[in-house]
Amino acid sequence: MVTNGVRALEALADPTRRALFETLARGPHPVGELAALLGVSSSAVSQHLKVLLAARLVMRRPVGNRRFYSLDPRGLGDARDYLEQFWPSALAAYAAALAEADPEHGPG
Asked: What distance in Å separates the CA atoms of residue 108 and residue 105, rounded to the nearest whole number?
């Protein structure tokens, strides 16, 4: 089953979407500004934003006839929650590697 945490990570795997996400971390922008900042077409930005919206990484707010995009903390929280499930086993593997590298100072 694909969770939204996985969807968020998949969305950020694309370099253009990641650049959009990082740009929006600095503040809201309309599509045209994002396209100019990243040097890609407005239609390409719109397609990438559609994926980021589906992953709940960005949200849009209408202002007059423009739509401003900003970060949506829900998708980032979903990605964090997904990754946190692996944290205990990652720490255990790290502790085991340390113990193996230096058996005199390892646990036990």
From this structure: 9
Give the C-alpha separation, 22 to 62, whole Å: 21
Structure tokens, 106: 């390892």
The CA distance from 23 to 4, in Å, is: 22
Burial of 44 (0-12, 13-18, 19+ CB in 10 A): middle
Pairing of strands 29-30, 58-63: unpaired
DSSP track, 3-61: -HHHHHHHHHTSHHHHHHHHHHTT--EEHHHHHHHHTS-HHHHHHHHHHHHHTTSEEEE
Token duo for residue 44: 């390409």
Mean pLDDT (the chain) is 91
Predicted local distance difference test score (pLDDT) of residue 78 = 93
* Tokens, residue 13: 């795997």
Residue owning tokens 């600095």: 26
Rounded to an integer, what is the distance from CA 65 to the centroid of its chain? 28
